[in-house]
């Protein structure tokens, strides 16, 4: 089934070139079904890249998906054209009275800051508080996952001695979870972060459960027991070249940065990186949409977020 996005969004052409079923707004208006309403809070500096990556993963769903893009009003984006933001993004004030089947909160390159030191932290807290009563299920990614699990459950983050950077093997620790249905016993996922949330802190909280971990990278996926909040501490949406682009950027700045592990053949950055995470990354997004949004969200969208 298709994903519904604005006709002129830059991601539209990229996804259509990949033979992904993208439905234009004009065509969608002539269908008599209720689409899933998703809100994407994009905190990444390269917003167009992140839009395309996540929309690609949302494309394989059992129902038409309508995605609205959200930015923080309390932070000025310096890496995305103002025209793009004005054309395609909305702010929280414009949607605070609306309800959504799903919310995705992306990562952000601010993990070395204390949460309260991030300039848009008060606004993000307001959005996360609002999600309790206006969103059926929320998916938090990387720093967004650290921020969400800290805000909702008080689980802290811890600074790492060096950047967790590369593609790491993981294992599922709760095989019965529909979120990881179809996953291999050993699967791979990218990480790019300077901080971590520890498994012991999650296991100690009665409202949380671990889903997948890595011996090298630590916690990958956790969720709330009521399935209202999901936390993914890596970047399953990343393209083949994303880690390479980050590495090349940092090298060009003269930074001391290690080669991302398990990514380039023989850890040689002159060689083309190999993707080993695409299939499970797609399953993660598809399973979340299918089992925790589509199959359980109320048909009356105004009831989304209202816990029984």
Automatic annotation (TrEMBL):
Q: What is the top-level taxon of the source organism? A: Bacteria
Task: Give residue numbers for the site Important for substrate specificity.
Answer: 192
Q: Which reaction does it catalyse?
A: L-homoserine + acetyl-CoA = O-acetyl-L-homoserine + CoA
**UniProt KW keywords:** Acyltransferase, Amino-acid biosynthesis, Cytoplasm, Methionine biosynthesis, Transferase
What is the main EC category here? transferase
**What biological process terms from GO does the record include?**
L-methionine biosynthetic process from homoserine via O-succinyl-L-homoserine and cystathionine
Specify which residues bind substrate according to the UniProt entry for this protein.
163, 192, 249
What is one cellular component GO term in this UniProt entry? cytoplasm
EC numbers, comma separated: 2.3.1.31
Q: Where is this site: Important for acyl-CoA specificity?
A: 111
Tell me the route in metabolism or biology where this protein functions.
Answer: Amino-acid biosynthesis; L-methionine biosynthesis via de novo pathway; O-acetyl-L-homoserine from L-homoserine: step 1/1
User: Where is this chain's protein located in or outside the cell?
Assistant: Cytoplasm
Q: Tell me a Gene Ontology molecular-function term this record carries.
A: homoserine O-acetyltransferase activity
Which residues are responsible for catalysis? 142 (acyl-thioester intermediate), 235 (proton acceptor), 237
Q: Explain the purpose of this protein.
A: Transfers an acetyl group from acetyl-CoA to L-homoserine, forming acetyl-L-homoserine.
The family note in this entry says: Belongs to the MetA family.
Write down what this protein is called: Homoserine O-acetyltransferase
Identify the species of origin. Adlercreutzia equolifaciens subsp. celatus
């Amino acid at each position: 089934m298709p994903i519904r996005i604005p006709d002129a969004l830059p991601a539209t052409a990229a996804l259509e070139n990949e033979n992904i079923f993208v439905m234009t707004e004009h065509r969608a208006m002539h269908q008599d079904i209720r689409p899933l309403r998703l809100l994407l809070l994009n905190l990444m500096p390269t917003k167009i890249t992140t839009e395309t990556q996540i929309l690609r993963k949302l494309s394989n769903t059992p129902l038409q998906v309508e995605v609205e893009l959200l930015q923080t009003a309390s932070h000025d984006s310096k890496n995305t054209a103002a025209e793009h933001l004005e054309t395609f993004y909305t702010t929280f004030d414009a949607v605070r009275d609306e309800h959504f089947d799903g919310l995705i909160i992306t990562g952000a390159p601010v993990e070395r800051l204390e949460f309260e030191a991030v300039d848009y932290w008060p606004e993000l807290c307001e959005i996360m508080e609002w999600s309790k009563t206006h969103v059926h299920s929320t998916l938090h990614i990387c720093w967004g996952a650290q921020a969400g699990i800290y805000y909702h459950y008080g689980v802290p983050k811890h600074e790492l001695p060096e950047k967790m950077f590369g593609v790491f093997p993981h294992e599922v620790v709760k095989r019965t979870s529909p979120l990881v249905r179809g996953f291999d016993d050993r699967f791979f996922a990218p990480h790019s972060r300077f901080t971590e949330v520890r498994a012991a802190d999650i296991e100690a909280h009665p409202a949380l459960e671990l889903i997948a971990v890595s011996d090298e990278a630590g916690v990958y996926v956790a969720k709330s027991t009521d399935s209202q909040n999901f936390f993914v501490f890596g970047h399953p949406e990343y393209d083949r070249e994303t880690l390479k682009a980050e590495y090349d950027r940092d090298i060009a700045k003269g930074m001391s940065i290690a080669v991302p592990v398990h990514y380039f053949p023989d850890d040689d950055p002159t060689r083309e990186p190999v993707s080993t995470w695409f299939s499970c990354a797609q399953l993660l997004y598809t399973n979340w949409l299918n089992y925790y949004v589509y199959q359980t969200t109320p048909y009356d969208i105004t009831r989304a977020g209202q816990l029984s």
